[in-house]
Amino acid sequence: MSSISIRDVRKTYSKSAAPAVDRLNIEIPKSDFLCLLGPSGCGKTTTLRMIAGLEHPTEGKIVVGDRTVVSVDEGIYVPAEDRDMGLVFQNYALWPHMTVAENVEFGLKLRKVPKPERDRIINDTLEKLAIARYRDRLPSQLSGGQQQRVALARMLALKPDVILLDEPLSNLDAKLRLEMRAELKRIHAEMGATIVFVTHDQWEAMTLATTIAVMSEGELQQLGTPDDIYERPANRFVAEFVGNLPINIVELQDNSTNPLSAWVHGMLADIRLTAPAGSVGIRPEHVRLVPVETSPRPATVIDIVPTGGSWIVELSADGEKFFAITPEPPGVAPGEQVGLSVPHESLHIFDAAGSRIEAVLQQTTGGKS
Questions:
Q1: Residue 178: CB partners within 8 Å, gap ≥ 6?
Q2: Under CATH, what is the fold of the domain 4-240?
Q3: Which residues form the signal peptide (predicted)?
């Protein structure tokens, strides 16, 4: 299997436009499952297409294994068809006039694989993806999930060292997306290929990836494991983008006239910071509802939403919206007053520019407020 090294890669489409990708540096170890995660227009698909050879970088270098596949300074460019990569598009891109078996066979024919070997590979691949019974059907006779499996089978039949997936699950319904996530994890475990997966769905990234690269406006915001990304976001963008329910953000003010800001300032008094704090993030699952008389921070319950296994509680604290998640029925009703309690160690603290601030909890604190 091959590693991928993206070095100072920049892509611009015109001199007047902002870069689609700007000074991107990512090292992807061999057999890693990397998710490029970010909102639409952040540069993740452009990055994937540059790895594949479908886009030319304006600057920079990409190395796959021990081979430079593109280097602007050195004038090196390896065509897409010579990079030994498998690519699956969002729209499947199947040949409509070919059967399932013929679609899977197509790349093997181009490589002049002998027919007995082609037949064996086709049979094995279709069986692994549970679509052998559809081998004689045309793509138009298949569901979206079945077509996606055919697209994967066509790519996997070639046994590429690197697999590139451009939002391959976005057209599937919820049940099929869940099934295909499990299928992709199994394929990765069995093949050990290096996978680069583009998605705007943070839940997909968190459940599939061994490493996540979060991008925004063409720039890399953070590279790390799913736990790193969620538990230690590098900045406010990552904290606010990653999470099924948005993180609660409290803007800190110099004066204490805002009660919500004053409450958080009180918690920060127990914490040693390496820089002045500009805002604090609190994940909804770390907010505890307690009797109002036991907490310095009262809030009003606005709504309670059951999600099947947990409850989302929408709150108003001094006119600002606040969310909590609880695994047990909250035992309160809309309109009631509750107190809020948050463990000090769960606070995500950012400076005025939005960068994460390292914090050390003082030993004297009880740990909650």
A1: none
A2: Rossmann fold (3.40.50)
A3: none
